[in-house]
Prior knowledge:
Blueprint: E1 3-8, E2 13-18, E3 21-24, H1 36-53, E4 61-68, H2 74-84, E5 93-97, E6 107-114
Parallel strand pairs: 4-5
Antiparallel strand pairs: 1-2, 2-3, 3-6, 4-6
Amino acid sequence: MTLQRFDVGARMSEMAVHNGVCYLAGQVAEDGSQDIYGQTRQVLAAIDALLAKAGTDKTRILRAQIYLADISDFPGMNSVWDTWVVAGHTPPRATVQAALAKAEWKVEIVVTAAV
């Protein structure tokens, strides 16, 4: 079984694929000045793009982990998430409040998907 890494950097890769499973690093917004709605849209678009590189998509997500800098952003994040997920393909998910690596980041999402 081969292991593929995508967007490899000095510290981490954005994605690894092994044994038919795609593992994404935590995805954060490129533009940290946006509100929770804008940042969540950016993160989900980044996830879509990475999954496409691996030849899969959001309907094959096995699990999602969502980190919010402020849990009061939960309803706003959910409103964007709910328009993004595909009915009948909503993955298992956990959402927690966490201190993110940069103060401007409001949300970070990690997903694992089948290829």
